[in-house]
């Protein structure tokens, strides 16, 4: 599994247009969408009123690395119901009432990255494809990573969700021909450490 890069998420400018459409939250959490779909959530992080309009109630920040929300309507993800979600940088997760994250990680066929000292992290990259910025021509790598973990700030809970990112190719790495052009890219403020990577 390619290491998760803890870089600010580069979002497609087209995401602002997607924000006006319905957001499929379970699909985003289960890694069934792409970076441009995730970009529709950018206004939610920047404006609590937009979160409320979606039926998300901002919660007190129990973890410095993520913004948490209570959902007016619970969702079902990975076979479990939840009304508690969180965002951090390019990561969107559901906070599940599962005291042990290991069975879910095994069910999702994830690769264990760390398992010691009451801390567990597992993940698997589902998408890694080369794209070009339509405006600048810059080569980028779109990555979608499924992750399951736990965190001390939320004892007895399992964090499960997806990290979406656009990264520059590693130094000396020649990008493959892009599979699809992207829209012009912009950056948005993001938290550097996604909770799926462990806190």
Count the beta strands: 11
Shape field: globular
Distance between the termini: 20 Å
Number of helices: 6
Give an overview in words.
By secondary structure, this protein is α+β, with helices and mostly antiparallel strands. The protein has one domain. A hairpin with a 2-residue loop joins strand 4 and strand 5. The N terminus and C terminus are likely disordered.
Detail the topology: elements first, then pairings:
Blueprint lengths: L9 E3 L2 H4 L6 H5 L5 H4 L3 H5 L1 H6 L2 E3 L8 E11 L2 E9 L2 E6 L5 H6 L3 E6 L2 E15 L5 E11 L8 E10 L12 E3 L2 E3 L12
Parallel strand pairs: 7-10
Antiparallel strand pairs: 1-11, 2-3, 3-4, 4-5, 5-9, 6-7, 7-8, 8-9
Overview features:
disordered C terminus; alpha+beta; nine-stranded mixed sheet; two-stranded antiparallel ribbon; 6 helices; 199 residues; 40% strand; globular
Summarize the structure.
The protein is α+β, with helices and mostly antiparallel strands.
């Amino acid at each position: 599994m390619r290491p998760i890069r803890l870089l600010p998420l580069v979002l497609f400018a087209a995401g602002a247009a997607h924000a006006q459409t319905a957001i499929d939250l379970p699909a985003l959490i289960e890694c069934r969408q792409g970076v441009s779909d995730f970009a529709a959530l950018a206004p939610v992080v920047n404006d609590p009123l937009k979160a409320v309009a979606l039926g998300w109630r901002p919660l007190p920040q129990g973890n410095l690395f993520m913004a948490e929300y209570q959902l007016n309507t619970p969702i079902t993800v990975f076979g479990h119901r939840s009304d508690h979600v969180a965002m951090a940088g390019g990561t969107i997760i559901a906070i599940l009432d599962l005291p042990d994250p290991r069975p879910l990680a095994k069910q999702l066929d994830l690769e264990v990255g760390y398992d010691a000292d009451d801390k567990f992290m597992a993940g698997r990259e589902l998408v890694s494809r080369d794209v070009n910025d339509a405006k600048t021509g810059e080569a980028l790598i779109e990555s979608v990573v499924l992750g399951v973990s736990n965190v001390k700030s939320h004892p007895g809970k399992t964090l499960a969700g997806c990290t979406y990112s656009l990264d520059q190719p590693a130094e000396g790495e020649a990008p493959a021909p892009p599979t699809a052009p992207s829209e012009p890219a912009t950056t948005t403020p993001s938290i550097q450490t996604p909770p799926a990577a462990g806190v």
